[in-house]
Amino acid sequence: MSPTGTRAGQAAPLTSSPPPVPNVLVTFPIPHVMLVTLNRPAQLNAIPTTQHPFLLQLFNWYDAEPHLRAAVITGTGRAFCAGADLKEWHDNNDAAAKSSASPVRNPASIIKSIAAPKPADTARPTPAQKWPADGGFGGISNRRGKKPIIAAVNGLCLGGGFEMVVNTDLIYALESAKFGLPEVTRGVVAIAGALPRLIRTLGRQRASEMSILGGMYTARQMEAWGIVNEVIEGDRDALIKRVLDVAAKLADNSPDAVIVTREGLLAGWAAEDPQPATNRVEGTIYKAMEGADNMREGVLSFVEKRKAVWKDSKL
């Protein structure tokens, strides 16, 4: 990649290079599209704590890069993402246990220590310390963002990996992919944002089945339940080809209209009535789009019976 971030197939150079992310491949296979590949196949693409801020930074850069209109995230090997790095989690728990251990003391010293203020437990990170609050697990699970992300689920999609996928805009999966929230079987909780989203997508009973039983589900089942948009037969190459076709179609639309439409859709996640939500979108981001270059171009191209030529979004 050149210093400006240009790849073969890009219609124009990027204004800056993407920030580096450990164990992640960032490429630009077709114009206006960023492909993010989680690349820890030996660990089933589990994401360690230190990686979350880097992924958030990458997706913030994507939102700010005017030439990009769609992002795709996938994994290498037999997993999309198996969630948190449980070995790291165990090491943190072990360190916390060791830090709290102490030699036998006399009763007076024990009473004194109970009365004394307790220091914060810094060995075991809280969820907010494990991943950034504004991005969540993998920079995605709680991301609102400006531009769409498409998930290309190539294999196991578990725990935090599934929490990421639930908050993407479109989901395509290989027929062999498996989904699940096994946290309860390991004594932990899916706390990165998926639970309230699953309630809204699946309803209480199906969301409960997934989250408190901790089972595994096929791609076909997730498609039937409305989580997965489309199941792809074949191998990973077939999946990526299909998803890049979808990304190209998305990028062919007005970038302004996509951004504003997405914001309107996300208003449905918020605890506000449809009319105030629509008014909020109309009075803010839609107002900035109305009458701007891409809206005028869309109408003009229809009148002139030609394909629209979009400018990069300034929203």
From TrEMBL:
SUPFAM superfamilies documented for this protein: ClpP/crotonase
Gene3D superfamilies, per database record: 2-enoyl-CoA Hydratase, Chain A, domain 1
Residue ranges the record marks as coiled coil: none
GO CC, one annotated term: mitochondrion
Gene Ontology annotations of biological process type: fatty acid beta-oxidation
Pfam families hit by this protein: ECH_1
Molecular function GO terms recorded: catalytic activity
Record-stated family: Belongs to the enoyl-CoA hydratase/isomerase family.
Name used for this protein in its record: Carnitinyl-CoA dehydratase
Natural source organism: Plectosphaerella plurivora
